[in-house]
Write a structure and sequence with these properties.
Blueprint (H helix, E strand, L loop, with lengths): L1 H20 L1 E3 L1 H11 L1 H21 L5 E10 L4 E2 L3 H8 L1 H22 L1 H9 L1 H12 L3 H14 L1 E2 L3 E14 L3 H68 L4 H36 L7 E3 L18 H7 L1 H22 L4 E12 L11 E11 L7 H67 L5 H35 L12
Helix pairs in contact: 2-9, 3-9, 4-8, 5-6, 5-8, 9-10, 9-12, 9-14, 12-13, 13-14
Length: 507
């Protein structure tokens, strides 16, 4: 006894700690935690961000492309614009001229010497003696050789070290509509990534809702099984009293004991199922699988009714369903892709401007200094023939666009069917819940009168057990009807695009 009292005291001391370790969560809290922890949603958000970068990158094609280029080249040989023979003739031009001049002076002096009249004039004229003497002594070879050498050097270009720099500007004026179509595709692709994000967002909320109400259902079944086991336990004590008084038999006690064992088994199964259901929800909302959570609706024995909304118009449903928006955007993207493929068959026009710098200087005879010049013009490219490649690509793009338009129409028809079916299922679930509630009221009244009759000894054990079984079934059906309504309403809300409260994102 002393040992048992110690254990009870320890459990009483730990009870506040165990109670505080439990975490009570509402449906909205579970949703927000799942949205914050879900990796697939985070990846979808990253895809939206990437699509935004692609849109901005496509916008850059409207602006000019400015680039700078630099290069250095080493050449082991220079460029000669004259042959080796001509180079030698240029460098020795003065010597050749001096030889011919000297030969002519000798011929002139010989002619004077052989002509008496010329000789007499030369001998009697100091001026001619001075002039002819100066001409005989004149040396033009040095000056002419220097000039020839300079000309020869100018004809040998020094390109051993070459430096080149350029700044280029390219501005597209007309690209066959490809730039405009590419920007439209980028904007549509960004909207498509947002629609895919919405799809993932909605699926997370539906999964959390279903896991949440599954726990509420199992928890309700567990409480029901515990209540049933409690009734049977009380009945078992009453039957023992009746046996002692001689108004009941051991067969009655055995029947109640069998039912009690079945009830205990139901409690065991419900306990295990509840633990597994909570582990699933913990995984979805990012908690450790062993976390002890209690749901707000789990504490109430009754399943709350969902907030029923009026039926939405189908045009609004088409606009809110992210799957339909994705297909519609994909069809529009392929429509623009047709324009991109068609642009390959159209001429392109671009403005180009360049500023070139080089060393050696091209404008100063390849001298070793920097020089530059600017060029500007318009470039027109007209495709003529390439095996009809662009034409075939355009036809393929048209076929792809037609395919996605067809898929969009098919999906619209499926959405119509899905929404209509879920609306009918919700109506049936409401009727089933009303009938289950009415049956439960009758079963509870029947159980109350049967229990009183059994306690007063006017009803047999089998009758009381039958009333308890009927109550158990009616209560179970009531819980199932309430959970079915919650599940059907969640599926209908998703089918109508009702989970569209997407968190704000920077555009």
């Amino acid at each position: 006894m002393k040992r048992n009292s110690i254990i009870l005291t320890a459990l009483a001391a730990l009870l506040p700690v165990l109670a505080s370790a439990q975490r009570t969560l509402t449906l909205e809290e579970c949703r927000q935690m799942a949205l914050a922890e879900n990796k697939a949603l985070e990846q979808a958000r990253t895809q939206v961000e990437m699509a935004g970068y692609d849109r901005k990158a496509a916008l850059a094609n409207y602006f000019p492309n400015i680039s700078a280029t630099g290069a250095y080249l080493y050449n082991d040989k220079n460029i000669a614009l004259v042959s080796d023979g001509m180079s030698a003739a240029l460098t020795n031009a003065g010597t050749a001229v001096q030889g011919q001049f000297s030969a002519k002076m000798q011929e002139l002096m010989q002619g004077i010497m052989t002509n008496p009249a010329a000789l007499q004039e030369y001998m009697t004229s100091p001026m001619w003696q001075t002039v002819l003497g100066a001409m005989s002594q004149a040396d033009v070879s040095t000056a002419l050789n220097a000039i020839g050498t300079q000309v020869d050097d100018a004809l040998h270009l020094d390109i051993r070290n070459v430096y080149v720099g350029a700044v280029t500007l390219e501005q597209p004026l007309f690209a066959g509509g490809k730039i405009v179509a590419a920007n439209r595709i980028a904007r549509l692709a960004e909207e498509l990534s947002r629609a895919q994000y919405d799809t993932e967002y909605q699926q997370i909320l539906v999964d959390v809702d279903q896991a949440y109400w599954q726990i509420v259902s199992v928890a309700g079944k567990k409480k029901l099984a515990e209540s049933y086991a409690g009734l049977l336990e009380e009945m078992e004590r009453d039957i023992r009293v009746s046996i002692d008084e001689g108004v009941a038999t051991e067969a009655d006690a055995l029947t109640v004991r069998v039912k009690k064992n079945e009830a205990d088994m139901m409690v065991t199964k419900a306990t295990g199922g509840l633990a597994l259901a909570k582990m699933l929800l913990c995984k979805q909302i990012g908690l450790d699988l062993g976390t002890d959570i209690v749901l707000a609706d789990e504490l109430d024995g009754n399943v709350p009714l969902p907030a029923l909304t009026p039926d939405k118009d189908f045009d609004r449903i088409y606009a809110d369903r992210p799957e339909l928006r994705s297909l519609d955007l994909a069809a529009q993207i392929y429509d623009r892709k047709v324009d991109v493929m068609r642009a390959d068959m159209l001429p392109t026009v671009a403005l180009t401007a360049n500023y070139l710098m080089s060393n050696p200087n091209l404008q100063k005879g390849f001298t070793n200094d920097w020089g530059g010049m600017m060029t500007a013009g318009v470039v027109v490219r007209v495709p003529l023939f390439h095996g009809f490649e662009a034409l075939q690509k355009t036809r393929k793009a048209k076929a792809e666009a037609s395919l996605y338009h067809s898929r969009y129409e098919d999906t619209r028809n499926l959405v119509n069917l899905q929404v209509s079916q879920l609306r009918e299922q919700r109506s049936e679930a409401l009727d089933r819940l009303a009938m289950a509630e009415s049956n439960l009221d009758s079963a509870e009244e029947n159980l109350r009168t049967a229990t009183l009759g059994f306690e007063e000894g006017v009803l047999a054990t089998n009758v009381a057990l039958a009333a308890q079984t009927a109550w158990l079934q009616a209560r179970s059906e009531y819980i199932d009807a309430g959970i079915e309504l919650q599940m059907t309403n969640a599926n209908l809300r998703k089918a109508e695009g009702g989970y569209n409260e997407v968190e704000s994102m920077e555009k």
